[in-house]
Design a protein that fits this description.
single chain, 501 residues, mainly beta, Jelly Rolls, 2 domains, 6-stranded antiparallel sheet
Length: 501
């Protein structure tokens, strides 16, 4: 069978996976966005449906100290043991390492249980003798993988933290996972930084603390220095299917042309895993993967495709929607005006480090179109509309505003410290349609008022909202945004995300 990579496109990095019977569950990093840590379900490892989030309450996730969109929640690990799902991660801005648990991954997760160990990228390993090991990277200041034993009920350390492996010599050993397979303890981690030198390496030993013997053909996954549409592969997790075969999920990027730049973020890829006669894993085609993979898979179990239009008819937002930092700072309603989303503007702008009145979903396709119908009665300086958002310093916006007593459509490009605005001629109607058309290299911004004709107001390059320019660890969001110093509400009738056919 053939399947397409990435299996979860768009900004869904650092995947971690576990199997329970015939069901597979996967989580991703969420950084400075709320809710935190999306949860996915699959029955064939190829087709994934989002079923919720691990972190949905203030008591679980505080992001107000995250001054940038790439702060917050880093690199989760998902594991299942004795009827419980455990998700362990790090809030790098507040609280450090913690884990939450549940009996139902689509339901409510527990409040955090904290573990006092430095670093990032934590993982849990449940050994056959009942001991539980907490493994993490030492972080930027101390390169290596560290481990201790913990009480899984309390998070209390039962042993000192020990350095167990320094990797193969690549920068920033991170994303460690421990597995027990055929009597060996395997320690797998990413090295080289999560950029174009990214790679996955593995070692094994006879105890959870090693000593660890490095795989003789490390790295077992890497696209570094290749002329290839996929780059920066690494941060992998292994899972054994119910038929006995092994698979790896991992992150990768799809750059646009040369010089390389990517704006969709780090995405989730899948590859089969074979084992050598002497017990070492081989990911994909000797460590590389393709956009289209030809391999034997589990029986296909595809989900119904998500509707391209959100009519805002439900009582709560769908799973695709996220807030920048904590949602309790956003005055949003799906009931104030039935069939419309009410987004009351705040005095926080997209350039600020607070929580703007913004809800967004990830850009998941290079070629797509987003649009909305907006009703807005702005006062001087108020604005509401559609945003292409990478971070505080790199984003684009088209929306309705009032300037010098005239209602106009404004188009803004924010690129680092440069702000460039363009305005339409005055328009009469407070109801407009807004549209953004995306190609791999540019966005086209249009509006439609009472004359029922689309007017192009401007274009902007994807290059300026790419990671290589904007920095950070995230990807582009398409969002609904409202700004008002007096709390004027914007009303959105629908939101359409249409991928190219």
């Amino acid at each position: 069978m053939r399947y397409q990579n990435p299996v979860i496109p768009g900004f869904y990095p650092d995947p971690s996976v576990c199997r329970v019977g015939d069901d597979y569950y996967l989580v991703n990093s969420s950084f400075g966005y709320f809710p935190g840590v999306p949860v996915w379900h699959s029955n064939d490892l190829v087709h994934w449906r989002q079923i919720g989030y691990c972190l949905t309450r203030e008591s679980q996730l505080q992001l107000n100290k995250s001054s940038v969109s790439s702060g917050g929640i880093y690199a989760p690990t998902l594991r299942y043991h004795a009827g419980r799902f455990y998700m362990v991660t790090t809030n790098v801005d507040e609280g450090g390492h913690f884990y939450v648990w549940t009996h139902d991954p689509a339901g409510v997760w527990s409040d955090p249980i904290y573990v006092d160990q430095p670093g990032i990228d934590p993982s849990l390993f449940f050994d056959d003798d009942g001991k539980v090991y907490f493994t993490s990277t030492g972080g930027m200041q101390s390169e290596g993988i560290y481990q201790c034993a913990i009480d899984i009920e309390t998070g209390q350390k039962l042993s000192d933290t020990r350095l167990i492996w320094t990797g193969t010599g690549g920068a920033f050993p991170e994303g460690p996972h421990v597995y027990k397979i055929n009597g060996y303890y395997y320690l797998m981690c990413a090295e080289g930084g999560t950029e174009y030198g990214h790679m996955e390496t593995i070692a094994r030993g006879e105890t959870p603390y090693g000593p660890f013997e490095s795989c003789p053909f490390n790295p077992i996954l890497s696209h570094r220095s290749l002329n290839h549409p996929i780059h920066a592969t690494g941060h992998a997790d292994l899972v054994q299917a119910q038929d006995g075969r092994w698979w790896a999920v991992f992150l990768g990027i799809r750059p646009v042309r040369f010089p390389y730049r990517h704006h969709l973020g780090r995405e989730t890829f899948l590859a089969p895993v074979a084992w050598t006669d002497d017990g070492w894993p081989v990911i994909g085609n000797h460590g590389t993967v393709e956009l289209e993979m030809e391999t034997e898979t589990l029986p296909v179990a595809a989900w119904e495709e998500e509707a391209e239009v959100d009519h805002f008819d439900e009582t709560k937002l769908g799973a695709k929607w996220n807030f920048i930092r904590n949602s309790h700072d956003v005055d949003l309603s799906l009931e104030e005006r039935k069939g419309w989303l009410s987004l009351r503007g705040s005095n926080v702008k997209l350039t600020d480090s607070g929580t703007p009145a913004f809800i967004g979903c990830r850009q998941r396709h290079f070629e797509c179109e987003i649009s909305t119908k907006l009703e807005f009665h702005p006062q001087e300086g108020d604005e509401a509309g559609l945003a292409v958002y990478m971070n505080e310093r790199h984003h684009y916006f088209i929306g309705l505003t009032e300037i010098n007593g005239s209602r106009v459509i404004t188009f803004r490009r924010q690129v680092g410290s440069m702000t460039i605005d363009r305005h339409s001629a005055p328009i009469e109607a407070p109801i407009v349609d807004l549209r953004i058309q995306a190609t791999p290299e540019r966005y086209v911004f249009s509006y439609q008022a009472s004359d029922q004709h689309w007017h192009i107001l401007g274009e902007a390059e994807t290059h300026w909202v790419s990671t290589e320019v904007a920095g950070g660890f995230t990807g582009v969001f398409f969002g609904l945004y409202s700004y008002s110093t007096t709390g004027v509400a914007a009303y959105f009738d629908w939101f359409r995300y249409r991928k190219a056919l």
